[in-house]
Design a protein that fits this description.
about 100 residues, two-stranded antiparallel sheet, mainly beta
Length: about 100
């Protein structure tokens, strides 16, 4: 069984090694913890992933207070990742 994952439609965290041209090129990312929607896949680095056809999906979301979270899976159409207080965060996060 193949489950469709929502994708990272935009990532403006240019310091992340997976970011190339405001696009995330990790295979999948994990979002947050119980309280904060941080991008757990963020990895600072000067060598960036090469752009390729694959755009990152959201493999898991641990931020249970988000209205898009259903059984630790993201149900948003897609998400955007940006910077909040110097940390990579899911900008699509919305409280229940």
């Amino acid at each position: 069984m193949c489950i469709e994952m929502p994708v990272v439609t935009k990532c403006v965290v240019n310091e992340c090694a997976y970011n190339a041209s405001n696009s995330c090129h990790a295979r999948a990312i994990t979002i947050g913890d119980e309280h904060q929607p941080g991008c757990d896949t963020f990895m600072a680095g000067s060598h960036h992933a090469k752009p390729h056809g694959q755009i990152a999906g959201i493999g898991a979301c641990k931020t249970v207070g988000c209205k898009f979270n259903d059984d630790l899976e993201c149900m948003a159409e897609g998400i955007q990742v940006g910077i909040v207080k110097n940390e990579a965060n899911c900008m699509t996060f919305a409280l229940r």
